[in-house]
UniProtKB/TrEMBL annotation:
Coiled coil: none annotated. SMART domains: Lactamase_B. This is Glyoxylase-like metal-dependent hydrolase (Beta-lactamase superfamily II). It holds the Pfam family WHD_BLACT. The keyword Hydrolase applies. InterPro entries: LACTB2_WH, Metallo-B-lactamas, RibonucZ/Hydroxyglut_hydro, Sec-metab_biosynth-thioest, WH-like_DNA-bd_sf. The keyword Iron does not apply. Keywords: Hydrolase. Residues 32-204 form the Metallo-beta-lactamase domain. GO terms for molecular function: hydrolase activity.
């Protein structure tokens, strides 16, 4: 990704889509956040990225003085939406997209914290559209990674901008209290039903050119994790740290807390379905 997507340079991916990579690489952003410009005569900006002066300058250079019809945010983690106010100030464009979400979450994370300054001019419901000259973007509600997550479908080309719901380099973080495994799995089903999507452009990682197959793989991975948890519970392993030690062999110990949040997301889903119960700091499998 770093070779074919150098930081700060506008790269044309298809006639209506340009990508600009922010210089914020990290363990949870891969090579950085990818901001997308959609349109030719006028444009929309998807996921303006972190509050970084160099990235803002790169975006303005890529926009090149064209009218900006909308600044669209898939969700409000700090690597996605904080540049929106400065971009709005520079272009006059409205901030449109996901609902605001501020969560006081001091637990161990494997992704960015929430953007407390996000203030949209318009919140898009599922299926609502934003349009310009020769392009139309439709919102697709995909809660799970966060409760306010949206994807955006480019109707003219069959491209879907997937934010963090589907990434091209890693599985998505689903961390309670806001991350919800049942919602995430349902959102994968939503994408599976969208056979019109030709290609995914995620906020992190490579473009996904066989999206249906990729989404099936993501769903299968989560079902395998759930199966591991059920088997461990059947063996009497009920504490989350003990599960993490068995399930994530070789993982950096500094990431065990974040892995535990993912295990907890599965357990809460199983609890809602009546398959497990919480007992103090442990969990137990209920009779079928």
């Amino acid at each position: 990704m770093t070779d074919d997507a150098p930081t700060g340079l506008a790269m044309t991916l298809e006639p209506l889509v340009v990508r600009v990579l922010a210089n914020n690489p990290s363990p949870f952003t891969n090579t950085g956040t990818q901001t997308y410009l959609v349109g030719t005569t006028d444009v929309a900006v998807i996921d303006p990225g972190p509050d970084d002066a160099e990235h803002l300058a790169a975006l303005l250079a890529a926009i090149g003085g064209r009218p900006v019809r909308a600044i669209l945010c898939t969700h409000t983690h700090r690597d996605h939406s904080p540049a929106a106010p400065a971009l709005k100030a520079a272009t006059g464009a409205p901030i449109i997209g996901c609902a605001p979400l501020v969560l006081d979450d001091a637990g161990p994370r494997a992704d960015a914290a929430f953007d407390t300054g996000y203030a949209p001019d318009r919140v898009l419901a599922d299926g609502e559209q934003v349009a310009g000259q020769g392009w139309t973007l439709t919102s697709v509600a995909t809660p799970g990674h966060t409760s306010n997550h949206l994807c955006f479908a480019l109707e003219e080309s069959g491209a879907l901008f997937t934010g963090d719901h589907v990434m091209g380099w890693s599985t998505t973080v689903v961390a309670p209290p806001d991350g919800n495994m049942a919602a995430y799995m349902a959102s994968l089903d939503t994408l599976m039903a969208r056979v019109q999507d030709r290609i995914y452009y995620p906020a992190h990682g490579d473009a996904i050119e066989r999206p249906q197959r990729f989404v099936r793989g993501l769903a299968g991975h989560r079902k395998q994790r759930e199966g591991q948890i059920v088997r461990l519970l059947a063996e009497g392993v009920g504490a989350v740290p003990a599960m993490v030690a068995r399930m994530y062999v070789g993982l950096d110990p500094q990431l065990h807390g974040a892995a535990g949040r993912s295990v907890l997301a599965h357990l809460l889903d199983l609890q809602a379905r009546g398959r497990v119960a919480a007992a103090d700091d442990s969990w137990q499998l209920l009779p079928a």
